[in-house]
Amino acid sequence: MKGHAGKILDIDLTNREISTIDTSEYEEWVGGHGMGTAIFYDRVEDKTIDAFDPDNVITMMTSPLAGTGVPAASARTEIQGISPQPYPTEWFNRSNFGGRFASMLKYAGYDGVIIQGAADEPVWVNVVDDQFEIRDASDLWGLGTWEAQAEIWSEVGQRGWNQVDETRDSGRTTQKPAVACIGPAGEAEIRMATVQHDAGNGAGNAGFGGVLGSKNFKAISVLGTGSIEIADPAELLEARLWAQREYSYDHDEDIPQVRDFYSFSRSPGEGDLGGVVETKARPQGCVGCHNTCRKRTSSSHGNESSCVEAVYYSGFDSAKHGETTAETAKAADIVQQMGFNAYTLNAGLPWLEALHEQGVLGEDGEIEADLPWDSLGEASFVEELVQKIIDREGIGEALAEGNARAAEEWGRLEQDLESGLLTLFAWGYPQHYDARTEVEWGYATILGARDVNEHDFNWHVYWQPHISILTGEEPPVSAEELANIIEESTPPHNVIPDYSDGAIYSEVAAERNSWHRHYSRFYKQSALFCDWAFADFTSPYTDDKSGITPEGEERFLNAVTGMDITFEEGMEIGRRIWNLERSIWTLQGRHRDDEEFAAYNYEEPAPGPYYLPAKVDGEWEYIDTGGRKLDRGKVEEFKTLYYQEEGWDTETGRPTRETLEELNLGHVADELEGEGKLPG
Ligand code: SF4
């Protein structure tokens, strides 16, 4: 397959050896999560081991598209392995980051990295083209992620800008090495530790930083000077021009005020970081991406941070200062440097504050905690709290295990999940979008292993109409137009985005979730089209208002790889990956009874307004779904419909032999049977 560099680095930390395997051994999985899941399946004999067991295998995988200039698909790295963050089970899991690591790895000649075993002392791995070695990291251990990268940059060295040869593949580059590393949180094996790259790229929502910490693996640095062979370079360039002409942000055109809530045609991030930094910034993007959705700031605070890590503290900041200040961006920098997942603070800080206000948590409370509450709203509060967690000091000892395990330790888990004081919606993950309203987000989370964090429908069904309606504007696309566009754009399921009370538990919802799982597992997590740009359903630039999905994915993938597959054939690869992953979870003990929401989703009404499309009395409209609670019995009915849709056993939610054999996964069925976990 074209687009591959051809080799995968195979790092054995226990024996301090690095070798390579041929990417072609796993070519059928294309890249990213598919390849990483298959490697994990083959390498980890006992899938029930703990995340911190040395036998846990972590893979960092790129895709054929990485480093090729495919817009919003040239820069993602997918990490997988058993993860310590989910509660109560440490499921096999995934996470993903952007930047320039994936392209640099490809230019060095590798499609991915396998990390297994554990070193007896801290190490880092240096890769420069076809040279690689394991180095002593004792001088790096203890450093923050930014300092560690700077040390490595100076140690590996850079070539001057005037040393660039005129030919490609010349062995020279002006680039700094691309480094993926852990911070103090990872070293301390905190369950919410991230893998960081450059200023603000992080693989956060699985806790793989802690797993690397348990392996004494501080960093991998890569410098590559090669190139990638493309199947049809002319078609790739033509496709890129087509995407730019037809779908990309147009500075000269006056587009609706919801411009930030498109996907492929998102406006660049030159703004002021969501109103939370004190200075202006310029757009910054991952390699090859036209969207440039992140920022470089003139203050240097908040570089490359976006979404929750950029704003998780803004409410506390503005409560203290009357407006958001530089403290919010400084708080973003603290978690990036510590290698700590900001999402856990997003739900955790309001919970700790509420417990403190109730007198439950404090110096004299039943939960003893010495925190500087007077400085809540200052970045220094976050710094002190995160440091206590890393040091497992005082309240930090329980919180190092994550909010759910801390609540359990304090005897508060049940009551705080029932009241919604602690908004961990599933698997101990902080609520992101509300499962009671935006149900596909919630379903995908309980059917998976983490906050799903996939925005395919979210931009189009929620943000665009919701913001428009709240600001008194007409949504850019009517509910009926949106339903038609999504149905047309989502073969082979042809999804109906109906969020009415009846539809959210029906076959319509089961089909929507099936499409979403297969699409994500292949196109976004294996071919590695970026979640913030794909799937792309609506565009402000096209006559029919439709976005680049599904034509774009198919066109770019075939131009690079020469696979010559249809969009639907890619979806079938996604179904195969999803079933392999489901089988791993089954081997870990997953049963349909495990797949449920935290109690508050059934007990407490969702806050509103929350506008989504729905078909009411035969007519499409945007309805306010705020106030909705989920119905426990009907969620079970949905699950049964969904398992049927996937060809899984409805009693257990586990894949059947018939389905696995249909996907050429008969050997997986054999293993399930051997472990007594094959249904029937
Ligand atoms: S959309 Fe943003 S996060 Fe995604 S590849 Fe582009 S710049 Fe990176």
Mean pLDDT: 94
User: How much is the radius of gyration in Å?
Assistant: 24 Å
Largest sheet: 6 strands, mixed
Low-confidence stretches: none
Distance between the termini: 38 Å
Task: Identify the overall geometry.
Answer: globular
| Ligand kinds | iron/sulfur cluster
Strands in their spatial order, largest beta sheet: 2-1-6-3-4-5
Helix content: 25-40%
Number of helices: 24
Structural class: alpha+beta
Strand content: 5-15%
- What's the count of strands? 20
If you had to describe this structure to a student in words, what would you say it looks like?
This protein is 36% helix and 14% strand. The protein is an alpha+beta fold. It has a 6-stranded mixed sheet with strand order 2-1-6-3-4-5, with helices on both faces. Strands 8-7-12-9-10-11 form a 6-stranded mixed sheet. A two-stranded antiparallel ribbon has the order 13-14. Helix 1 runs parallel beside helix 20, helix 6 packs antiparallel against helix 19 and helix 9 runs parallel beside helix 11. The mean pLDDT is 94. Iron/sulfur cluster binds next to loops.
Structural features:
single chain, alpha+beta, 36% helix, 20 strands, 680 residues, binds iron/sulfur cluster, six-stranded mixed β-sheet, globular, 24 helices
What's this, in brief?
This protein has 680 residues and is an alpha+beta fold. 36% of the residues lie in helices and 14% in strands. Strand 1 (7-12) and strand 2 (17-22) form a beta hairpin.
